Amino acid sequence: xxxxxxxxxxxxxxxxxxxxxxxxxxxxxxxxxxxxxxxxxxxxxxxxxxxxxxxxxxxxxxxxxxxxxxxxxxxxxxxxxxxxxxxxxxxxxxxxxxxxxxxxxxxxxxxxxxxxxxxxxxxxxxxxxxxxxxxxxxxxxxxxxxxxxxxxxxxxxxxxxxxxxxxxxxxxxxxxxxxxxxxxxxxxxxxxxxxxxxxxxxxxxxxxxxxxxxxxxxxxxxxxxxxxxxxxxxxxxxxxxxxxxxxxxxxxxxxxxxxxxxxxxxxxxxxxxxxxxxxxxxxxxxxxxxxxxxxxxxxxxxxxxxxxxxxxx
Length: 313
What we know:
The chain is mostly helical. It has one domain (7-310). 77% of the residues lie in helices and 0% in strands. It is globular and about 65 Å long. The protein starts with 6 loop residues before the first helix and ends with a helix.
């Protein structure tokens, strides 16, 4: 029997994949910082290598690089916006723990929902609100919730602006003319154009850190593939299939990924708050995934029951 998956189901799976792989950023970034590499160099190498890899994939699979004239300025604007979001997030790692930064970044689903509601009149369902609130509470639990940690104001501001820019990017690729660009092509131009932000900054104010040692090369290659190529393509497809609001809420898996990496890779302790947080986030995601099929079944049962009662059965 042939197994098939619906467009919506594919969107949920790819949204989860996008969030999980994007949550790998700290795993590959922090070792590079420990080697003395600056954020512009890390991101320059990341976006540059991702551009080459995507270009080779498109060339070998005969994908078109063509975009229309009216899509060009929008693609440039949104690519630069995404690059700025990456830069601000990576800079925040220098002021606070990467896990804390990933936690604060999760405010972007709320921004996505608000933008869609205000400017595109998208109805925010009760399930969507409940999922955001449940996931947000879970993220706070992952953060710790002990009241003993003081947030760095500079790092916090950097992440908040990064979240705002990231939210605009997610809405834009689903609501503007660029939504018609194939996902792989859109991802190629996102990184190919976005990398100029880092190279220009390096030429004007910074210096290019060399890649030294096998570990650095592995981290650069991995950060170009997983949180960049895989995550961005998966996110673009997910947004086209289930919308930017749902894809953003699935982003709750990003800080969960960062937490699990901390426990498994760096030996961090997972306390009670962390366990509760993981449970709440996964519950929020499952609520979002099963809500529409469940409502459809309940509606059919209601109609069926009403039909039987009307016939005296």
